[in-house]
Amino acid sequence: MNSHKDIDAADRSVVVSDPSVFDKDPNLHQSFYGLAYTPEGSQLPDCGNKLEDVIKDIQVMSQLTTRIRLYGGDCNQTALVLEAINRTKVNMTVWLGNYDVPNDNHAAYTRQRDLLKETLETYGTNHTGGMTVGNEFMLNYVTQQGLTDVDSPEANEGAQLLIQDINDTIDMLKGMNLANLPVGNSDAGSFMNKEVLSDVSYGMCNVHPWFANVSVEDSANWTTTFFLEQDQALADSLSNHPTMYIAETGWPTKSTDAGNADNGISDASEANLQIFLDTFICQANDAGIKYFFFEFKDEPWKDAQFGGVEGWWGLFDSNGTMKNITIPNCQSP
């Protein structure tokens, strides 16, 4: 597994140049509020991520947004991202992630917590917007238990497992004199649990019109309406009033099997990604909606593991080539 010493050693293998000096692509615009990002090779047990690759990604993403969200802490991905930001000297804020897993006796959480703590001790919080504990934890817990109501007493048993880890993170940050760093949670937009949301500073909600079987023409309005009427309204009803973000929204560009080539109404295609970009991005910016577009690049490992559309949501392919799309030209907030 990578360590901070590995980053130092890798300095000698990275091309000796100034990563803060790089060519800007006139086709890119800083239009996105934020982007969802996972460095390639950040999954156990392989951990093949490389600093030079992350630097290239940060250089490109900095031309699209000033904010990214990560999903987990394994394979030292957080340190690589923060190191890349330091080297490129770009304006970028990162929401860190701890990919919590139900029913593993907090093993995944603890492993990532310790890596994230080491990273914060090394890099501080100058480029950090928050720490997200859990991604679709409640969706997975409720599904595994065969439940339907995310706020039922049975579902709240899972919520308490997650809250235990959230509170442990809050205590860790207090012990590091970083109590001002917000701690949040991310889940599917229809699986935001009240007890969890009442315990955090922010909530991130995955709101995908594709999986709701919405036509691409209606997807932008549906996404905004769903988020405001379900997730934002829930947050407004709670005494802590957590800040709410759309954690993921986007449109897939292809499927590896014919059965998932469309969502029953609209195709997975680059043309339809363009429609969603044209109807959502600038309008969401104008409306003041905080969102992380899903996602920066395609992820082949998801295709290999899950098939269908899972690996094909990127604005760019996995090699870093932009798809046949035009980036909207409006300034993000």
From TrEMBL:
<dbReference type="GO" id="GO:0009986">
    <property type="term" value="C:cell surface"/>
</dbReference>
<keyword id="KW-0964">Secreted</keyword>
<keyword id="KW-0325">Glycoprotein</keyword>
<dbReference type="GO" id="GO:0000272">
    <property type="term" value="P:polysaccharide catabolic process"/>
</dbReference>
<dbReference type="InterPro" id="IPR017853">
    <property type="entry name" value="GH"/>
</dbReference>
<dbReference type="GO" id="GO:0042973">
    <property type="term" value="F:glucan endo-1,3-beta-D-glucosidase activity"/>
</dbReference>
<keyword id="KW-0134">Cell wall</keyword>
<keyword id="KW-0732">Signal</keyword>
<dbReference type="Pfam" id="PF00332">
    <property type="entry name" value="Glyco_hydro_17"/>
</dbReference>
<keyword id="KW-0378">Hydrolase</keyword>
<dbReference type="GO" id="GO:0071555">
    <property type="term" value="P:cell wall organization"/>
</dbReference>
<keyword id="KW-0119">Carbohydrate metabolism</keyword>
<comment type="function">
    <text>Glucanases play a role in cell expansion during growth, in cell-cell fusion during mating, and in spore release during sporulation. This enzyme may be involved in beta-glucan degradation. Active on laminarin and lichenan.</text>
</comment>
<dbReference type="InterPro" id="IPR000490">
    <property type="entry name" value="Glyco_hydro_17"/>
</dbReference>
<keyword id="KW-0961">Cell wall biogenesis/degradation</keyword>
<protein>
    <recommendedName>
        <fullName>glucan endo-1,3-beta-D-glucosidase</fullName>
        <ecNumber>3.2.1.39</ecNumber>
    </recommendedName>
</protein>
<keyword id="KW-1003">Cell membrane</keyword>
<comment type="similarity">
    <text>Belongs to the glycosyl hydrolase 17 family.</text>
</comment>
<dbReference type="GO" id="GO:0009277">
    <property type="term" value="C:fungal-type cell wall"/>
</dbReference>
<dbReference type="InterPro" id="IPR050732">
    <property type="entry name" value="Beta-glucan_modifiers"/>
</dbReference>
<dbReference type="GO" id="GO:0005886">
    <property type="term" value="C:plasma membrane"/>
</dbReference>
<keyword id="KW-0624">Polysaccharide degradation</keyword>
<dbReference type="GO" id="GO:0005576">
    <property type="term" value="C:extracellular region"/>
</dbReference>
<keyword id="KW-0472">Membrane</keyword>
